[in-house]
Each structure stands twice: as structure tokens, then as C-alpha cells.
Amino acid sequence: MSPRARILVVEDEALVAFALEEMLSDFGYDVVGPAPNVQAALKLVGDEKIDAAILDVNLGGETVEPVAEALAAVGAPFVFTTGYSSASALPPAFKDRPSLNKPYQPEALREAVARLLGD
Fold first, then answer.
1. pTM of the model
2. Which pairing describes strands 30-35 and 6-10: parallel, antiparallel, or unpaired?
3. How many CB atoms lie within 10 A of CB 64?
4. What's the confidence (pLDDT) of residue 1?
5. Whose CA, among 31, 81, 91, 111, lies 20 to 30 Å from 21?
6. Mean confidence (pLDDT) of the chain
């Protein structure tokens, strides 16, 4: 049996993070986190094996860009999530990265993570 993919969740809204964690677990993934802020997320990127990540663009007023940079440096794919218009919310250096709009549609989430993992 192959190990389950480990997905980092970076989300500052507790209820949204819980729902996301539940969906990912139902899809057969192990969830790393959720991390509610940049500092916690960067610690997880440094300490844990991460196969892919789901990054909320706006974490209580701070941008998730440092986490995206850390993930890119270690070669871990990620998708941004936002409650805003996707293109305008993404960090400029990462405008070409995939994004998902909130609220999450389970099938769109499943497909996005599968694409990140190359499944």
C-alpha cells in the first residue's frame, strides 16, 4: 500500500479549515496543519514532508506569499484559495499558479489536488 499524500492546509478561518481538512481526509489524503498564519505554515514547511499545499491568499491581513516562496523552493506544488476574484488576489510573482474560489466545491477541490499531485 502506498503512503497517503500529505497536503498542507494554510487557512486562518477555523470553520473553513475544518471543512477543508474533512474533505481532504475523505478524499484519502493526510492533512498537515491546518496552519492559521504565515509563521505556523513556514514552520510546517520546514519540519514536515509536504506533497502539495492549499494556501489561503489572505491570512488575517497578511499575505501567504512567503509560504508560497518556501514551497516553491522545496518543489512542493500548491494551489491558492480566495474568496475574492482569483486573478486580482494572487501575489504578483505567482499569478500563473492555479487557484480555487471559496466556498469550496468538493469536486473542484478533488480535481485541483489531483492535478497538483500529477494524478
1. 0.92
2. parallel
3. 28
4. 41
5. 91
6. 91
